[in-house]
Design brief:
By secondary structure, this protein is of the alpha/beta class. The chain is built from 13 helices and 14 strands. It has one domain: 3-Layer(aba) Sandwich (Rossmann fold), CATH 3.40.50.
Length: about 400
């Protein structure tokens, strides 16, 4: 599976700061100091209802992570998956009278178009669950053979008791885990399970549903969590720098993925740091596919909204915050974009050296994009009020905003 084209990232003078970011697993802030190549895995979409604003906010956050790392003169190895086989995808295809493969391909293509329009940097590997099945099957077999998985009426479940570190990513108690498992695709009430929250690794073939050769597992398809484990282990191994996604993935997805990998390898941790973006609401409720209260990037683009304004709307909220999409949010972003473009269109202006360092410091401080926007606002206001004589300032501002915020002026 291919990703989308990369936009050029301008070079900036000097060097950026190491990123200090909130780690979900510890509940505190850590300073990320990767090697020469920083490794980032972000969980991708299940390809239907793409790309809503909640998706866009999440991937925008991890685009900022990449840009901060690039500004420290590191390379970035970024991997993202696509869950192109799962119950919700099959359910949507059936409800619409659609072919599930055609639906997945169409929505994945739309997602790529939206990511390109928003100028989000692409992953080096963009990998589907279906194409990963040959890598997933041996992992499930290994877990079963090691006693970390068990058979239940032909389905293979992971035993969370097999990982002594289970629970360290989310920090949740057993009852909270059970409730979230039921809400987010698990089956805690199924009789015969060793632990209510044990997740499925391999679902035996069901009548009328797609299935694949599972070797000794029998025909079927993979569970949700094991796909990301197979992909991350293939390209990174254990102990990569950041696992990221929306906050709704903390449990069960990231908790279970960590335990799968740790039980497979005997090593800990799966990822050094877990970073999660907040949820976006509409009309007082979290945007979700089940509620249908979605604002789509593609719909805004069709209405003629500049993708740079959409991106500024996302950047105006801290990545960890839960916030609400409104018409005013977009209007303010459109107005900000116009002010910034007017400011950099002049032949000279106030010095921008301090601005560059302010934006660097804001983003290094737990990706404080609103503070970065405020710094550019101040420069634009000074430009509008008094101007300046630095002929290089408008160009430096443009490159700063492009390289670090992903917004082309």
């Amino acid at each position: 599976m291919h990703a989308w084209p990369a936009s050029e990232v301008p070079a900036l003078p000097g060097k950026g700061r190491d990123l200090r970011i909130h780690d979900t697993a510890t509940g505190g802030r850590v300073t990320l100091v990767p090697g020469p190549v920083a490794r980032l895995y972000v969980c991708g979409i299940t390809p239907y209802d793409a790309t809503h604003m909640g998706h866009a906010a999440t991937y925008n956050a991890f685009d900022l992570v990449q840009r901060v790392w690039l500004d420290t003169k590191r390379q970035v190895h970024y991997v993202q998956n696509v869950t192109d086989i799962d119950d919700p995808l099959l359910e949507r295809a059936a409800a619409n009278g659609d072919d599930w493969e055609a639906l997945a391909e169409r929505e994945t293509a739309l997602f790529r178009e939206d990511m390109t329009a928003l100028r989000l940097l692409p992953p080096r590997q963009y990998v589907g669950a279906v194409e990963s099945i040959p890598k997933i099957v041996p992992l499930v077999e290994r877990l079963r053979d090691a006693g970390a998985a068990y058979d239940l009426d032909g389905d293979i479940y992971f035993s969370v008791a097999s990982d002594s570190h289970f629970g360290e990513v989310s920090g949740l108690d057993a009852e909270a885990m059970r409730l979230l498992s039921a809400e987010r695709g698990g089956d805690p009430d199924r009789p015969g399970k060793k632990n209510p929250v044990d997740p499925m690794l391999w679902m035996a073939a069901r009548p009328g549903e797609p299935s694949w050769d599972g070797a000794s597992l029998g025909p079927g398809r993979p569970g949700w969590h094991i796909e990301c484990v197979a992909i991350a282990l293939e390209y990174f191994g254990m102990g990569f720098d950041v696992q990221g996604g929306g906050s709704d993935l903390i449990f069960p997805h990231h908790e279970m993925g960590a335990s799968h990998a740790q039980a497979l390898t005997g090593e800990h941790p799966f990822a050094k740091t877990y970073v999660h973006a907040g949820m976006v609401a509409l009309h007082g409720e979290k945007m979700s596919k089940s509620k249908g209260n979605l604002v789509f990037v593609s719909a805004l683009r069709r209405q003629g909204v500049d993708p740079a304004a959409i991106r500024l709307a996302l950047l105006s909220h801290h990545y960890r915050a839960d916030w609400e999409w409104t018409d005013d949010v977009l209007t303010e972003a459109v107005e900000r974009l116009a002010r910034w473009r007017a400011a950099v269109s002049r032949p000279d202006g106030p010095s921008a050296d301090a601005l560059l360092e302010e934006v660097r410091e804001a983003l290094a401080d737990d990706l404080d994009a609103p503070a970065a926007l405020a710094a550019v606002d101040r420069w634009a206001a000074a430009q509008a009020a008094d101007g300046g004589t630095d002929e290089g300032a408008p160009g430096l501002v443009s490159r700063t905003v492009d390289a670090l915020l992903g917004v082309a002026l």
